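Hi all, long-time lurker, first post. I run a small reading group and we've been trying to get comfortable going from sequence to structure in the token notation. Rather than ask abstract questions, I figured I'd post a concrete chain and ask someone more experienced to write out its structure so we can walk through it together at our next meeting. Sequence below, copied exactly:
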Amino acid sequence: MRKILLVVLVLGIALGGGYAGYRGYLSLRQAHLIKQAQHYLTEPKPDARKALLSLQRVLRSNPRNVEACRLMAGLSEAERSPSALLWRSRVVELNPRSLDDRLALAQSAMVFRDYMDATNALEGVDQAGRKTAAYHNVAGVVAAAANQRAAAEAHFLEAARLEPTNPAPQLNLAVVRLHGTNTSAMAEARTTLTRISSSSPALRCQALRELVVDAIGSRQTNAALALSRDLVQQTNSTFSDRLLRLDVLKGSQNAEFKPALAAFQREAGTNTAKIYELSMWQITRIGPAETLAWLQSLPKNTQTNQPVTLLAAECHTMLRDWRGLNGALTNQNWGELEFVRHAFQTRALRGQDMGGAAKAEWELALKTANGQKASLVMLLRLAAQWGWQSEGEDILWTIVNQYPGEQWAFRALAQALFAGGRTRPLMMLYSQQVKRSPSDLGARNNLAMTALLLDAQELKPHELTREVYGKAPTNAAYVSTYAFSLHLQKKDAEALKVIEQLKPQELQNPSIAGYYGLILKATGNGAKAKTYLELASKAPLLPEEKKLFDRAKAGL
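-- Answer (accepted) --
Happy to help. Here is the structure in token form:
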């Protein structure tokens, strides 16, 4: 027996060692392939195809390899493929505490004008990360893009304070002020940008770009022509800088415009990143029809590249060319963006009133997204873009259920349900939130209020309102809910005493005024009640609230 145990022990050690050795081999192999991919990308003539093959081998054996996902994101960004957002999101999921990865996701999202992903990426930055200049610079850019100038200025001021010798925050701050309404601040901003353009080689192009945009906006044609000519002559200028020059030529009806556009179209013909930039420029400046015609004139092997097929699909959609879209999408495969292709296919089928086929295609889009958060967010954005409220709500429910940490999804869903007057689903959402965060007083108050409106006594709303009020008796919303609970229990004198603890300006808040009006009427002060019930009509209301207040007003 001892010999058998010894043999088993030896075999166990041998097998364990063999497994550990195998895992070690895999780790070394993956490290070698990543190093190989990095070499392909940094050699004098980068070979993206070979780098991609190396990274795909890594990810087949270990889909959770963070560095491989980062490099895949970089490759996708270089091609201007929206799949970059999937890879950046994947990196953040694997490495959620990394400030650099969250900022990279936000910056990538801004390239594709995806403000939702950019904002969500920044929301997850911890307190230590929020104290860095890098965070404030990116947060400022996102806020500026969302037209939140005050927030953008605050971020850039903090970045400048943290890095007083870095001219980048000063440049960003000048850009925000340049788009304001204070004429003296605008003049100072122009001076700052002009100084940076001449004193900081690294930021010269960026400063010149902003000065060109300002000259275009101010209709200073000669200045715009001169500045844009200077910009494109810089050794580190980009293709997008030449497109900015094209803007100036078009706006000034310059004879150089048409030959310059034709030259750029030839130059971009086989470069996916340039095709993306030129297409986006053409869609907004010339129109989707001309852009689609150009895309369809490209070499066949270029037309089948994923970013190009997506651009063509966008053009077909803008033109409402549903048959053309349907035909263009048939027999294609968009790789990691295949779920997006199915979504566009759904749009094409709906446009042709093929409801059954469209429903099946949308289900396929959801199935192909495979519950991945970044994929679901892409589908959500498309649903919002196309006005598909029901599909958008379904996706938000999925994100809320599968990714409870994504508070933006909860807020978006609550807002959608409230706007749609969907009180019962809203109550279910608040109930779910309370189960996950029992100490969240706001969630408990919202649950109590919706339960009171629906008379959902199984949730014990009167007890819930009393508990919430007891823990925060000065919170106006909680006081109002508790007073309403007392009113429903026919304890109107007590309800009046509770709600009149609030300040006069709080009682005039439309979301509270209606409940004060109900209680005033119940306690015999109809004249005063009418004033507050009228105030309530200025607030967005749930159907049950509107019915309550309308009924109360009718009796006055």
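A couple of things your group might point at:
The radius of gyration is 30 Å.
Residues 421 and 542 are 5 Å apart (CA to CA).
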